[in-house]
Amino acid sequence: MRFSVGNIAVFKSMLPLLVAMTLMGGVYLAVRWSTQQSDAVAVERQQQLIELVISKMQYSIAHDQESVTVWDDAVRKVSKEWDREWIDSNLGSWMHSYFRHDGAFVISPDRRPLYAFLVGEADEQNAFKNIAPEAMPLIAKLQKRLAVGDEAGISEQVLSIGESDLVRLGGRPAIVSVKPIVSDSGNIVQEPGGEFLHVAVRFLDGDFLTRLGEEYVFEDVRFSVVPNLGQERSYAPIVSSSGETIGYFSWLPFRPGADVAKATAPVLLVAAFCLFALTGVLSMILRKRSRRLQQSQAELNHLALHDPLTGLANRASFNQLLAGVVAASAADQTNALLYLDLDRFKQVNDTLGHPVGDRLMIEVAKRLRETAPAAAVISRIGGDEFTIVVEHSRQDEVENLCDSLIAAIRRPFEIDGQPVLIGLSIGVAVAKGNAADPVEITRKADIALYHAKTSGRNRYAIFGPHMDELIRTRRDLEQDLRAALEAGNQLEVFYQPVYSAASQEISSLEALIRWRHPNKGAIAPEVFVPLAETSGLIDRLGAFVLKEACSTAREFPDLDIAVNVSAVELGQRHYAAQVFSLLRQFGIEPSRLELEITETALLDEAGICEKNITALREFGVKFALDDFGTGFSSFGRLQRLEVDRIKIDRSFVQAFDQPDGGVAIVQSIVGVAHAKGLRTTAEGVETEEQSEILRNLGCDELQGFHLAKPMPKNSLRDLLGTERVQRTSS
């Protein structure tokens, strides 16, 4: 083909246009490819996020169930007492109002529905029929596992085995979770496989999809049995444990690339040279949105392994880190695990409020980071519990580190201009080589921490073989206390008279528990009462004392009687009813009974103690605040206390002979108490001089060894005289 000059000119004139078109085409293809890739990545991450949310929901529902199914009361109410109202309030409709579960069922060991609750279904039989085809296989599978003692999956976070699956109920996607109703204390013996079962149902449409869309920015989330809602939507299959697809979640996917390309299309048609700039902007926007998605996923992963308040590693992360350190250790490498627990943090948290407690916890974590070696791994594994893993550690270095940590935490913290004082106790376990067991290391550190706390707090203890023996001794003492409660002949209630300061006559009695062990002799209440609180025996011990006290009150009808009540006892929902029952049984006027409590009972976060106190006071029972002046911010709380009497702690009475001692303090307590209309009783009176001072200060009653020691009932009869006994009993 021959080209003329004209043709060549035309070609040259068109060359810039061809170049421009080529550039525009290249830019267009590049933009289209990048938008498609960005959209694909965004859709994939949204699908992964939905799968993660469903998995988390399955775990959450089972965890919600454990809060009510691992409970002695639940076992008794469904198996022996069958209290339908209680079951509905604790295992049934309450699960919907509190945890948003859509269904709750109690199943007998022979697989009969004893209780049924399903949103939108009033008939219980129909309610269970709606879920039976999907629930029964899970129930059968769980009963088989229970019968053979299968404990697979149980951990510190998972308290009982269970079965859960994704199913379709009446065309709706749902999670069905089955858990056994078991004893939390181990005191109730249950036949393996014969446990009552609790079934929870949570539908995955309706409000679940609404919350999913709002919390994770999904547009128009729907459920469908088959993916037939249009090609423009994205789908995530809902797959059961057997691999069956029960339906799909679909939504209008977030397509950052397509949105940006559509917005820039007019600009691309206007001028080619703008495409280069806009391509850069596009890339920047895409990268930013991709980073946001990546950041969201990274934040989810971070939250799974870190404490959200302090940013430290959490318990799950700690377990992985400790196992990794041990596995990577050389045969002669020594590692140390420090188990830390804050002293008095709960009092600060309850008294000053959780916001102050949270800020204090952040400051504690900061000091731990500043004090610990840079290579140490610090974790927060509980409310006020931390761990520190130190590699390549020598004992002298560990001891110096413990001293430094305790000193750092004991320095006052300043929050809102107010000094806050707490302490620190540390348990240490040292392990050598990679053959050590991480679980055993943690157990030893925990035992050492217990030893440090019982030695006076603000101390550290390094695990030694003798500590195992201490734990065994404590366990043996707990078993002996259980046996003593069963035997009934080792425990005895003593009575210490309380005298009127004005008339100097006995005005009331205080009941005090005593334990004479057949082999170990007398065991102090300071030893076995805290043991009863932590081992779940305080209810039985307190009931024994209260029953004996009521019997004595009936024998001496002109004397009131006081009984010490643990905050753990008062925190039981049934406590007020138990007191009412005993008073009626022995025919005792409620006003003759006085319950002595400490400030710990007034710091009950759940409010159960306060409800029991209110119910008992309305019934006529009186309350006294024991050991007043030794608690946290007692004077500040005195104006708000709902009690009838203040018992002044013996430490102030013993300080009368010291310069600027207890006289002024007692005078202030008596003045404030009388201004509020409260009576006062001074404890620990050991001399006549102390008695005279207390009378002059206006104290209403006196109690102490100078006046009378605690004595058994026979000695009390001798003290009061047989004539008085006969006269008052006639």
Descriptive notes:
The protein is an alpha/beta fold and 730 residues long. The chain has 4 domains: 1-48 and 265-300, no CATH class; 49-252; 315-473, Reverse transcriptase/Diguanylate cyclase domain (Alpha-Beta Plaits, 2-Layer Sandwich); 489-725, TIM Barrel. The chain contains 25 helices and 24 strands. The strands form 5 sheets. An 8-stranded mixed β-barrel has the order 16-17-19-20-21-22-23-24, surrounded by 4 helices. Strands 2-1-5-4-3 form a 5-stranded antiparallel sheet, with helices on both faces. Strands 10-11-9-14-15 form a 5-stranded mixed sheet, sandwiched between helices. Strand 1 and strand 2 (113-118) form a beta hairpin. Helix 1 runs antiparallel to helix 7, helix 1 packs parallel to helix 8 (272-305) and helix 13 packs across helix 14. The protein is globular. The chain starts with a helix and ends with a helix. The model is unreliable at 1-16 and 725-730 (pLDDT under 50). It comes from Sinorhizobium terangae. The chain crosses the membrane at residues 9-31, 265-286. Residues 474-724 form the EAL domain. Residues 333-465 form the GGDEF domain. Pfam families: CHASE4, EAL, GGDEF.
